[in-house]
Amino acid sequence: MAEEGQQHPLRIYWIMWGALFVLSGFSYATDFMDDGPVRTFLILLFMMLKAGGIIWIFMHMGWERLALKLAILGPPVAILVLIWLMSYEGLYIEDTRVEYYGESTMEPQTPHH
Amino acid sequence: MSEAVVSGAELEAAGKQGVVDDFSRDKQVFGVPWGKAMMWIFLLSDTFIFSCFLVGYMSVRIATTDPWPSPSEVFALQAFGYDVPLLLIAIMTFVLITSSGTMALAVNMGYRKDRTKTFWLMIATAVLGATFVSMQAYEWTKLISEGVRPWENPFGAAQFGSSFFMITGFHGMHVSAGVIYLLVIAFRVRNGFYEKRGGNYEIVEITGLYWHFVDLVWVFIFAFFYLW
Known about the structure:
heterodimer, A: mainly alpha, 2 domains, 0% strand, B: mainly alpha, Four Helix Bundle (Hemerythrin (Met), subunit A), 7 helices, 2 strands, globular
């Protein structure tokens, strides 16, 4: 509780730390996959697992009272609406650009190292 | 850092009743030190800033008719004679995760009032953070030398450069600020600053919250900007 601060056994941090390494390895591995819905799903899955672990264990959110959890984790849900609106808007802008300017004729270079 | 938190058996109600109690009783709402509540609220506002950047990046990437440069190729590095995709970014990710672990341990040691271990773990975190920023500086230098600018780049859509510099720059600034913050608190822990204030090491956890947040933002940048 608050008066003693967030004290937890060390083991839980070691497990979380290891899990983050493994999950980041998986995240990186998705870069070698072919593009497609499976890859997109895995990118999002590993992202959510890592983010959840960091917030819940490392930032101790899992041990806080529900009032604090709701106050901090509730408002970001509004961002989902912004994502939805802006993706809709972006598609519309792309359509108008294609209609007025045509498809891109740009030939991008491949980076050489 | 006064411990003015009202506590007692009547506040132990959990779940929905606990939320109602916390908000409706004539007391401080959050049963945590004020510094921690304020850090959380700051991080919430920062969440919105980074979200706006990432959503802005999403919008311009959807809206452009030019092909988006492949991050996998743009950020590839030569190693052992091969082009390894995202090599530097992967190393940076692991450096940041390592620093998150040392920070979590520092917070724990702080609550155990082990000042020496807390100090060294925080220093290790700061060194790893500085390593991360240095690698980012190298990455920026490399991209700039290849002709990537906020308004154009040879690899595809011009919006790539502006999104890249804006998002990673703002994140890098957070890491740099975090390194300074860590160093200040670490030295205060060592020289007994908090001993004079009742030996309260909650500040280490508050610093940790900021540091973990920086790592958290990187998780999203890595997924959306580098992998997507």
